[in-house]
């Protein structure tokens, strides 16, 4: 890929006998918002620290902006990092924190002050320069850490779960702010997160990692709609998976019946025989009294109800199955919330199915 700012080829990382990264081959484009997503211990932070230069590569090649980073120290790389803890110096002012990396710069004092002001304005903290760092809120500390990283004008900004310490509402606000900021400055952002929703909202592309390997690399839409494996599908959001038998281009699905399927619905290749049929909660709907449909239908028993205000999630057991499947319904005026024990009529589309050979 000619426009890659970060390029890894067959990168391995060992800690003694522990194999933390297992043959990572990956290109990250210039100007891209890229996320490394996976559960704790999957290797995503190790990969980020390897790009930063805080960890050595055991074998393989790492290029940054076309240059081999073997034996290049972290402070000599065109990267900067925002840590999960923010690493703000509490005894310094906001301006002193932001300008910390300019201490050895050849810029004169006036130029440094202008750079600090510009960085603070960029992250929405104009006028905060004289404030004591220890007096800042969590969201403000996060913005200071961003300004401190961006003031050095790195080609790649590395973000190690920078929003994990924030409460839900502030976290959602900062997700939007980070995305806006990345578009504004135009540099490559690489985010490490275990939050699937965060990765889907913010990223141009996502690499899903398990056990030191990349399980799938795709856009948020492709990752959600066409996961390569059942494990990826169940990790990204909620995925109902029902036992199925596939013959040619037809699937017999437990609780749903027979339906036509196409190779496009099997990203890892069309299975033959025993398979798993995945369908997202929003791809199914409950039919209320008097409601008709041209979609395929089934019925099942509501065994759990989870009311979220704007949405209600129903766990429904279909005939011939034991594991409940989740169906999400938008709460609109006049639509009742069903009780547990209700027999529900369900509408669904065959086109929404994803087939997995790994059941």
Major sheet: arrangement of strands: 6-7-8-3-9-10
| Helix-residue proportion | 10-25%
Mean pLDDT: 92
What's the total helix number? Answer: 8
Reported by name, the CATH topology of the largest domain is Rossmann fold
Number of strand segments: 20
CATH class of the largest domain: Alpha Beta
Shape: globular
Describe this structure in words.
- The protein is α+β, with helices and mostly antiparallel strands.
- It folds into 2 domains: 4-225, P-loop containing nucleotide triphosphate hydrolases (Rossmann fold, 3-Layer(aba) Sandwich); 238-356, Nucleic acid-binding proteins (OB fold (Dihydrolipoamide Acetyltransferase, E2P), Beta Barrel).
- 22% of the residues lie in helices and 35% in strands.
- It has helices spanning 44-52, 94-98, 109-122, 138-150, 168-185, 196-202, 220-225, 230-235; strands spanning 4-15, 18-29, 33-37, 59-64, 67-68, 79-82, 156-160, 188-193, 205-210, 213-218, 240-247, 250-253, 257-260, 273-279, 284-287, 296-307, 311-317, 325-330, 343-348, 354-356.
- Strands 6-7-8-3-9-10 form a 6-stranded mixed β-sheet, sandwiched between helices. A 5-stranded antiparallel β-sheet has the order 13-12-11-14-20.
- The model has no long low-confidence stretch (mean pLDDT 92).
Topology (elements, then pairings):
Blueprint (H helix, E strand, L loop, with lengths): L3 E12 L2 E12 L3 E5 L6 H9 L6 E6 L2 E2 L10 E4 L11 H5 L10 H14 L15 H13 L5 E5 L7 H18 L2 E6 L2 H7 L2 E6 L2 E6 L1 H6 L4 H6 L4 E8 L2 E4 L3 E4 L12 E7 L4 E4 L8 E12 L3 E7 L7 E6 L12 E6 L5 E3 L3
Parallel strand pairs: 3-8, 3-9, 6-7, 7-8
Antiparallel strand pairs: 1-2, 1-4, 4-5, 9-10, 11-12, 11-14, 12-13, 14-20, 15-19, 16-17, 16-19, 17-18
Helix pairs in contact: 3-4
């Amino acid at each position: 890929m000619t426009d890659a700012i970060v390029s890894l080829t067959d990168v391995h990382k060992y800690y003694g006998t522990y194999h933390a990264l297992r043959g990572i081959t990956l290109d990250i484009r210039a100007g891209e918002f890229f996320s490394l997503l996976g559960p704790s211990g999957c290797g995503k932070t190790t990969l980020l620290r390897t790009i930063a230069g805080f960890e050595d590569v055991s074998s393989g090649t790492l290029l940054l902006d076309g240059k081999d980073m073997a034996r290049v120290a972290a402070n000599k790389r065109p990267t900067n990092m925002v840590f999960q803890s923010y690493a703000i110096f509490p005894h310094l002012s906001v301006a002193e924190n932001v300008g910390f990396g300019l201490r050895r710069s050849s810029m004169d004092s006036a130029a440094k002050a202008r750079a600090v002001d510009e960085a603070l304005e960029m992250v929405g903290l104009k006028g905060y320069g004289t404030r004591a760092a220890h007096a800042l809120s969590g969201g403000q500390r996060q913005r200071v850490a961003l300004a401190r990283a961006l003031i050095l004008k790195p080609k790649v900004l590395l973000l190690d779960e920078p929003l994990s310490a924030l409460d839900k509402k502030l976290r959602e606000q900062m997700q939007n702010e980070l995305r806006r900021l990345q578009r504004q400055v135009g540099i490559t952002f690489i985010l490490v997160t275990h939050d699937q929703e965060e990765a889907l909202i913010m990223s141009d592309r996502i690499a899903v990692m398990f056990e030191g390997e990349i399980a799938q690399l795709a856009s948020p839409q492709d990752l959600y709609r066409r996961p390569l494996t059942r494990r990826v599908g169940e990790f990204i959001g909620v995925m109902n998976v029902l036992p199925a038998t596939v013959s040619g281009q037809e699937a017999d699905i437990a609780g749903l019946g027979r339906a036509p399927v196409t190779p496009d619905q099997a990203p890892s290749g069309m299975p033959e025989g025993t398979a798993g049929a995945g369908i997202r909660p929003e791809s199914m709907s409950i039919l209320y009294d008097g409601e008709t449909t041209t979609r395929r239908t089934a019925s099942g028993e509501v065994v759990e109800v989870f009311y979220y205000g704007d949405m209600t999630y129903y766990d429904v057991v279909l005939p011939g199955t034991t594991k409940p499947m989740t169906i999400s319904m938008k709460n609109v005026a006049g639509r009742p919330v069903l009780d547990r024990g209700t027999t529900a009529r369900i509408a669904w589309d065959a086109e929404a199915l994803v087939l997995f050979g790994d059941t």
